[in-house]
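tool=predict chain=A
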Amino acid sequence: MVLANDTSKRLRLTVITAFIIGLAAAMLVMFPMRASARTFRISTPEELVNINWKNAGYGPGNTYIINNDFTLGDGEDATCLLTKGKFVIDFNGHTVQNAHPSMAVFSLRGADVTFMDSKASAKKASVRSYGVGGIDMTAGSLLIKSGTYAGLSDGTNNPVALHVGGGSCTVNADNFYGEYCGASCAGGTLRINGGTFQGGYTFGLMNMGGSIKISKGTFIGGNTTYGYSFALGAFVPQQYYDFSSWFIKGASVPSFQTAYWNMQSQLSSEPFFASTFAVSYGDPTLKVSLGSSAKPAATALKSVKNVKTKSATVKWKKKSKNVTGYQVQYSTSKKFKSAKTVTVKGKSKTSKKLTKLKKNKTYYIRVRTYRSVNGTTLYSKWSGKKSVKIRK
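tool=predict ok
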């Protein structure tokens, strides 16, 4: 009897174990385990051009640290092609370059890529090309956190440090130099949140038909063969180009001029090439900033007086630099609940009369400056408040 019970228990245990193993196998089929991201050190050109593929555990989802300076060779291994998946590449203070005349060092065709240089130096390039350019992107997404990127001429091409032909590219910092232009955009979106872009003999930044959005950056034009230096440029045949569309709302943009350049063919009286350019006055460098530095300076209240029936006159200090006008805010609440705001246009105005106030009420008043930039309005901090009791 005891033996029969033991056999029954073992049978039940075997059935339960088999069920658990089967369930686990089914779960693995339905929800396969993801391999954890790995970090690889890249020391040779062959290793770099193969990171797109899953040989030796390479492929997307990993971080790659460049371990040596090296040059990509000719032929198929002359560029690092990234087509899909997520990659993080840290140049780690080293230079990857390419001497092939018709290939970029990195060719992005759909991958989600982050470039950075944890030991970045303005004196040493992270990516350098002696052909068409350092980075050529047509699809996917690219985030450049840091590094120095250069496109140098081998005498047969017009190189750029960064070219965006599609997808979405965001640049946050550091340096881009191209002997033709620092960076160009022919499709997709190029967002610039920082960095210096310098062209050798044309533009610091050039648009060929894509979307450029700038919040912060420095753009330095090179000297063209026609004797001009252009910080920004665009190839737009037969039409005027509106550079204001490049700057995001709130960007602080110095005065710059636009010009229309039309070069005619020697074989025809009809123009075959037309461009528009922008450059800061008398200087090929254009600096753009966004943030507290873009806001106008705050002002201070001088006096608040009840001078006429149910009215008060407010006076403040004049702030003429980077100021479009002023705003006066008043309320019977110290915390400015249900406050009313009056806009005073003109940077030279220094006073405002408030009317239709309530007798025997105490009003709290403050003032701030505002500035209109590229279709948006920037405000300073509010001044300290003053109070006035309406006695008449």
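The longest helix spans residues 2-30. The radius of gyration is 31 Å.
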